[in-house]
Amino acid sequence: QSAEPVGTKLIGKHVVLTAGPTREALDPVRFISNHSSGKMGYALAEAAAAAGAKVTLISGPVHLACPAGVSRVGVSSAQQMYDAVMSAVQKQCDIFIATAAVADYRPESVADQKIKKNNDEMIVRLTRNPDIVAAVAALPEKPFTVGFAAETNDVLNYAKGKLARKNLDMIVANDVSDLSIGFNSDSNRVSVLWKDGQHDFGKRPKTQLAQDLIDFIADIDGRHLG
Length: 226
Ligand code: CTP
Ligand code: CA
What we know:
Radius of gyration: 18 Å
Number of strands: 12
Shape: globular
Strand content: 25-35%
Helix content: 25-40%
Bound molecules: cytidine-5'-triphosphate, calcium ion
């Protein structure tokens, strides 16, 4: 068998992605975070590069190697991810794909020194983080913007709400109530929604799903936005 054919669909395009969790510091040794593995975002970055795109992957802390041909920017907090994304999309960006599980809130203040357990209870006040994908979709020269929605219930309705509220071109809806797919698993089953359509991708390995999604995004982007 010969080597994989090198794709051409995204030649000349710059694809920017976010992936993985963010970490929100409480003090120098502690943070709030989540279980995102980054697998879906890394697989999409690899598939976009294989399709000929220039790829920038803004990644929270994960245990994954940077795919070949992808340029990775490592970040920790949501604010750092926001800053890295805004600087990456500033020049030319054709497609932005937000797969990161961005922490919705961060501790309102970060202690300079390690917090001591002086009390029987501790209250941490949290404050909202910026919405990265919504900020990209609000840019005057907006790239084709794709979000992910991981939901446990009412999946399609919540996803449709996010598509509209964040002004996205497309959203990938993911039912994470089924533990054999989603967050930490190697397979996934998703539905893709956009303004005037829906397409269901049955359960398949994340690497295969990533190639199929990149193909699909490239086709729709080409059709709708020239
Ligand atoms: N997202 C983002 N920045 C944030 C929060 C979310 O870019 N601060 C992106 C995610 O990467 C994903 C999409 O928005 O592509 C949806 O994320 P999700 O957590 O499902 O949506 P939220 O708007 O945060 O709503 P909620 O968590 O309340 O369901
Ligand atoms: Ca969220």
